[in-house]
Amino acid sequence: MRIKDFLPILDWLPNYKASNLQGDLSAGLTVGVMLIPQGMAYAMIAGLPPIYGLYASTIPLIIYAILGTSRQLAVGPVAMVSLLTAAGIGALAEGGTETYIMLAIALALFVGVIQFLLGVFRLGFLVNFLSHPVISGFTSAAALIIGLSQLKHLLGVNIPRSHHVHEILLNAIEQFGAVNWYTFGVGIGGILLIKGVKKINKAIPGPLLAVVFGIAAVYGLGLVDQGVKIVGTVPEGLPSFVIPTFSGEDFSALLPIALTIALVSFMESIAVAKAIQAKHKNYKISANQELIGLGAANIFGSLFQSYPVTGGFSRTAVNDQAGAKTGLAAIISAVLIALTLLFLTPLFYYLPKAILASVIMVAVFGLIDIKEAKHLWTTDRVDFWMLVATFVGTLSLGIEQGILIGVALSLGVVIFRTTMPHFAVLGRIPGEDHYKNINRFDNLEQREDILIMRFDARLYFANVNFFKETIEAEVERRKGKLKLFILDANSINSADSSGLHALEEIREFLASLNIEFYMTSVKGPLRDTLQKGHFDEKLGKDKFFMHIQTAVDNFDEKNPQRYKDYVLQTNLD
């Protein structure tokens, strides 16, 4: 491995162009300004004091800029990870306490170690078990939970923390008579301001303008005396170096949620990184290096009081739109946050919590993916119901249970589809030598004495029973007139020992009925397996053909085997 592969910064920094500086500076400042209210807001979702959102927006950004392969990905606190953090730690400690804070920091360390090891051992493929419909359903449900969890700040009422939508709504209805309308007005004003600015120009930091509006309204109108809750004193100074402390019990309790966050956050990050990279095409995204970059960002971040972070959709989009060309933009954002921590925290004393709630609600409700559900309804009903099941499961049972349902469904679909892959009976296009699926094409020619079938999958232990049963059923239906069975192996990439046994059983079954057995279009890896298992000798080397039509002509004795020197050629000595 080249040093540049492990330290992607060495790929772009030595070749840095002065023409990129304007874009990086603009994007870095824009995202940094955006991060100030978002980081504080997302820390509230995680059950942490707002300052920890700013801590999570410093060191992790710099580490990712050094080790990450995306040049536009904006790493930092995000709503999804914040919610998962709250869900995992909420059962172990009271929100905002020293114990809770230390567990959140330890969680960042665990998440980082998991991601780093997955990257080092090149295990990024594991996230493939979280299918897009599952992620979409989970994200939409989590976004709804996150958004509604902010009702207590938007309405200025006391609603107990819950990860179940129905409980939140019932409690909100019960507290409706106690709504602080000053608080509600400030929150709604923040929402309208953020959404209005977004329509004008997405690059304008709407959340920051909402923060300015909220502080001015509270301070100028004396709304604290009217019961409007504010952030209050925000500690000054950079995060101090702290080694996370935890017990063996803490480790066992946090490991499941750490694994969940590690995979879900990586999925979110790699999805947006690849989407942005597709627009630029001047660099490549490495999934395993992304795991290393995100893992290191979380590990080093935990040493400076950060909770888990990942790449975010909205900030990355803004980063790209604002002109980011390299990782320098992320470093500039981190420097701006650091300067804020050093000199500007007193300005946030009068920041109303309703404004932070408005920032969160606008951000997360945009993650509810109705378009994807509509798309899947028309294209793939199985995926649609996976999305629905994950969505409903997350809403009704909780965050962790929802993601487990999604993973279980993903694995279930994979198992189902691999055990019962596509099988086709083929017929001839009139006047041509091409054969197609009789269930997809009309007016195909079929002979009573010849059955041609195509199996579209690897032949291995999980699907051999389906393979045998399907062939035997079709043969039984045509028994009496059937003289030849042709297996088109064009889509069989390989076979294991169970697949080899299945072919042998089919050969014996057909022989018992005096039906010939031919195979066509056998690929190299399958030919190797057949030769090592001596199946080519058992079937007869003259029963293998390059094309279906060649096999049919040979059966009809119109044209003897023309490609006998190629059909069974292998790489074996």
Distance between the termini: 32 Å
Give the overall silhouette.
elongated
Number of structural units classed as domains: 2
Rg computed from alpha carbons, rounded to a whole number of angstroms: 30 Å
Instruction: Please outline the major beta sheet.
Output: 6 strands, mixed
Number of strands: 8
- The structure class reads mainly alpha
Question: What's the tally of helices?
Answer: 25
Main sheet: which strands, in order across?
4-3-5-6-7-8
Helix share, percent? 55-70%
How much of the sequence is in beta strands?
Answer: 5-15%
Q: Report mean pLDDT, rounded to a whole number.
A: 89
Residue windows where pLDDT falls under 50 for at least 5 positions? none
Describe the fold and architecture.
There is one protein chain. With about 575 residues, this protein is mostly helical. It is about 60% helix and about 5% strand. It contains 25 helices and 8 strands. It has helices at about 5, 10, 20-45, 50-55, 60-65, 80-90, 100-120, 130-150, 150-155, 165-175, 180-200, 205-220, 250-280, 285-300, 315-320, 330-345, 355-365, 370-380, 380-395, 400-420, 465-475, 495-510, 525-530, 535-540, 550-555, and strands at about 75, 310, 425-430, 435, 450-455, 485-490, 515-520, 545. The strands form 2 sheets. A 6-stranded mixed β-sheet has the order 4-3-5-6-7-8. It has a two-stranded antiparallel sheet with strand order 1-2. A hairpin with a 6-residue loop joins strand 3 and strand 4. Helix 6 (about 80-90) packs antiparallel against helix 13. The longest helix is centred in the middle third of the chain and has 33 residues, at about 250-280. The radius of gyration is 30 Å and the shape is elongated. The relative contact order is 0.14. The model has no long low-confidence stretch (mean pLDDT about 90).
